[in-house]
Amino acid sequence: MRRTQASVIFGRVTLLLFLATVLVPLLWVYISGFKSGDEILGDPWGLPKSPSLRNFEVAWGSKQYGIAPYFVNTIIACVGTLLILLPVGAMAAYVFAKYPFKGSKLLFTTFLGGMMFPNFLVIVPLYLLLKSIPFMDQPQGLTGTLPGLILVYVAYSLSFTIFVLTGFFQSTPNELAEAAMLDGCGHLATFGKVMLPLVKPGIVVVGIFNAIGLWNEFSLALVLFNQGEKRTLALAIQDMATAQQYQSDWGALFGGLVIVTLPIMLVYLMFKDRIQEAMLAGAIKG
Which pLDDT score, from 0 to 100, does residue 211 have? Predict the structure, then answer.
C-alpha cells in the first residue's frame, strides 16, 4: 500500500515538473511579448509595467521585420500540404491495411524507413530535382516556389501519415466493408462513405501533428524556399533573432514568437478533445 501511494506521489510530482518545464518558458515568452526591450533586460521575470501591443505591430507589419507575408506563406504551405497529404495517405494506409498484395509488407517497410531517414541527407538531391522540373518559365524550376515546397512536404510527411493511419484502418471491422460491397458500393465508395468516417479521430490526430511539424519546419525551407519574401515563418524568426545582435529590439522578437506559436496553440485547444479520444481509442484497441 505504501509503495502504491509512493509511486502515485512520485508520478504526480514528475508530471508537475514536466508541466512546469513546458508552461514556464511559454508563459515567459507570452508575458515578454507585452514588455518593452528595457523591461525585458532589466526585469526579465517581472510582469509588464505598461502592457503594449507595439511589439506585435512591429513584428507583424514593420518594414524592418514584417513577418505578415511569411505568415501567409506558411499557412499556404501547411494547408496545401494537408489537402494533398491526408487523402493520399489515407488511401495508401487503407490499401496496406485491407488489401495486402505481394510485396506490400516490403513496400510498407520502405515507407517506415523514410521516417528514420534524416531530411538533411536528401536536401541536395531534392534541390537538384526541383530545379530540373520546369515551372512557369522560371530558370530555377520549382525551387523557391510554394508548389515545390508543398510537394516536398507531402513526401516528407507521407511515411508518418501512412504508419499511423494503417493502424487505425486495421482496427476497423472487415464486416462493414463486406456489407457495403454486398449493397453495391464499389471500392472507392466503401472507402469514402464507410471506412473513412470510422478513422476520423486518426485523421484529426495525424493532421494536427503534421501541421505542427510543418509549421516549425526549418531545414527544407532554408534550402528550397529562401528567396526574398519567399520564406516561411521559421526562417523569418531566425532572421529576427540574428538581427537582435545588432539592433537589440528584443520586444519585437518576443512579439514575433507569440505570433508564431499562437495559431498552433489555438488549433490544439480546438481539437484537444478529439486528440484525447483518439489516444484513448488507440489504447483500448491496442
Answer: 92
Give domain limits for the chain. Answer: 1-32, 34-285
Q: What is the pLDDT of residue 93?
A: 93
The answer to whether 162 touches 89, Cβ cutoff 8 Å, is: yes
CA 269 distance to own-chain centroid: 15
pLDDT (average), residues 229-239: 88
pTM of the model: 0.87
Comparing 245 with 135, which gets the higher pLDDT? 135
3-class secondary structure, 227: strand
Cβ neighbours of residue 33 closer than 8 Å, sequence gap 6 or more: 55, 56, 251, 254, 255, 257, 258
Measure the CA–CA gap between 210 and 250, rounded to whole angstroms.
Answer: 30
Contact of 81 with 210, CB cutoff 8 Å: yes
Return the CATH fold of 34-285. MetI-like fold (1.10.3720)
Element containing residue 272 per DSSP (H, E):
helix 250-285
